[in-house]
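Many introductory courses stop at the sequence. We go one step further.
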Amino acid sequence: MQELLTKYFNYLLIERGISQNTLEAYGRDLRRFVLFIQEKKKLTDIHEVTPEIIVGYLTQIRDEGLAANSMNRSLAALRGFYKYLLRGKIITENPLAHIELAKVWMKLPDTVSKEEMNLILDQPGTQSVSAIRDTAMLELLYATGIRVSELINLTMNSINWQVGFLVAMGKGSKERVVPVGKIAYDCVRRYVDEIRPKLMQKKSTDVLFLNRFGRKFTRQGLWKIVVGYAKKAGLKKNVYPHTFRHSFASHLLEGGADLRTVQVMLGHSDISTTQIYTHITRDRLREVHQKYHPRG
């Protein structure tokens, strides 16, 4: 099975050209699956995997607390792997053919309210080098809805300063253009003019956001910054960098933006992925109605 995985990963990397991040995520998912069927089910042959075993695996990772989007990715990884095995005539039947994630497993993405977001954005302040940089990063995350990986990979050429647009490199190396907005634009402009030259420390780099060593941020580094400011703001709920992306989408829809426009800005290839945010909007409408309507 390990040999099959290696061949599949080579296929994804060389022939499909998927990103390194996606490859690593699929690798974790598929290795977890192989470990399950080898250690839990004592199987050594891929032909012995049945639909019942697949369901057992999905049930186990759900019970371990895997988030809904991670559940979907795990299922997508398995589907891709088994399609590869079918095309290569390594198997003749696909045990995933009739398996779908039950709706009960789905979980709406975590968001914060507009008031809570403002609290977080107010935390860094404007008094220090790191504060001005952090404000610029947080404002840009919320203004554009870009992913963490997209933010840390931004370069000086990623923002069109004349028209106020940002070019993000999304999944599958797909570019998309997103408006930055005046507040985020001003914060990033100030960071570039006043702070970035100090952080460069005579280094030569085109990376937009630099850490205190003058290097590109890691995902973990940005994660710590976001979590730290959310706690400082006194929020009891969990807030992560991706919470900014979810909140960006739900706040736009609450404000009346159409779904197709939000889909384009998020870089979703399928509008059904974006539609999950309409559930959040409906829940918010229900909450407001119950709170303020005389017979709510």
